[in-house]
UniProtKB/TrEMBL annotation:
Gene3D superfamilies xref list: Transmembrane di-heme cytochromes, Chain C
Protein location: Cell membrane
Name of encoding gene: narI
InterPro entries per UniProt: Heme-iron_electron_transfer, NarG-like_domain, NarG-like_sf, Nitrate_red_gam
Keywords noted in UniProt: Cell membrane, Electron transport, Heme, Iron, Membrane, Metal-binding, Nitrate assimilation, Oxidoreductase, Transmembrane, Transmembrane helix, Transport
Protein name, UniProt field: Respiratory nitrate reductase subunit gamma
Membrane topology, record value: Multi-pass membrane protein
Domain of life: Bacteria
Species of provenance: Hyphobacterium vulgare
A Pfam cross-reference name: Nitrate_red_gam
Domain NarG-like as annotated: residue spans: 17-237
């Protein structure tokens, strides 16, 4: 059953209209076109730029915390913002329950991601060897993601003041309005707290710069590794014809 909220929707002024009405399309267009062009024209720059050889232990802990946290946030944002509200209503998931889930699950994932990000940032800034091999872009993107995590986590006390989910519904209506080309989409977020607005603008900016950073490795994460089948390398010790070496049979190795 559809749930009603008393929501106040402001009419977007020029700034809100520019940032939440037009900027999302610019950011998404640059994300898609830029990634395709980079993949096509500079395939050898398409990498995560690993610094694993240097200070491995700190990298492992920081990287696992950061990646698990960010992937959980990514999945939560995707499902939470883009699933039509009617589907949650049909499943009987109240807006309040969904808001609570975003706060608790998002909060835990956010804390994991920020702990990992701070470890990785510390490693990049204070290990002289890693600092020397890091580009400005490597450190900048980590600092931007850390700032985004701080802003995201700072929304939790604000969301906690709207446990009926009314604020969250505004973000869902906005995000879905953008993807369905609704002209008044920006109105839904025009009246929200500035911390939410800063989080949305920086999130869109991360989309915008995505193709120019090491974040592109997200699109080619080797997840197929998890399900790949082993293969067999068969080497022969038999001498090549004419090499004069004796024939010793074959050796088989299974590599996973
Ligand atoms: C355009 C991209 C993004 C949009 C539109 C967006 C939107 C939002 C919204 C609306 C909330 C509040 C959810 C609620 O409580 O109702 C939120 C929370 C949060 N966001 Fe984002 N976000 C974006 C990108 C990111 C990124 C890239 C990160 C991490 C690097 C992130 C991390 C968080 C965290 C940690 C929270 C608090 C926990 C939660 O509610 O999930 N966000 N975001």
């Amino acid at each position: 059953m559809a749930q009603e909220h008393v929501t106040t929707i402001a009419s977007a002024g020029w700034f809100d209209q520019a940032m939440f009405g037009y900027y999302p399309y610019i950011a998404l267009a640059v994300l898609v076109i830029g990634s395709v062009l980079r993949f096509d024209r500079e395939p050898y720059t398409w990498r995560s730029g690993s610094s694993q050889l240097l200070r491995r232990q700190q990298l492992m802990i920081g990287s696992v915390l950061f990646h698990v946290g960010v992937l959980a946030i990514f999945a939560g944002h995707f499902v939470g913002l883009l699933t039509p509200i009617q589907i949650f209503d049909a499943l009987g998931i109240s807006h309040g329950a969904k808001q609570m889930l975003a706060i608790v699950a998002g909060g835990i994932a956010g804390l994991m991601a920020i702990s990992g990000a701070l470890i990785l940032l510390h490693r990049r800034l204070f290990d002289p060897r890693i600092r020397a091999t890091s580009s400005f872009g490597d450190t900048a993107i980590l600092a931007i993601l850390t700032t985004q995590l701080v802003l995201g986590l700072s929304t939790i006390p604000l969301s906690s003041q709207h446990l009926d989910g009314s604020e969250m519904v505004k973000f869902m209506t906005w995000a879905q309005g953008i993807f369905t080309f609704q002209p008044g989409a920006a109105d839904h977020v025009a009246g929200v707290h500035w911390i939410f607005k800063a989080h949305l603008i920086l999130g869109l900016t991360i989309f915008l710069i995505f193709p120019f950073t090491r974040l592109v490795h997200m699109l080619s994460a080797p997840v197929w590794f998890l399900g790949r089948r082993g293969w067999q390398i068969v080497r022969t010790r038999r001498g090549l014809p004419g090499s004069g070496k004796p024939h010793h049979g074959t050796k088989q190795e299974t590599v996973r």
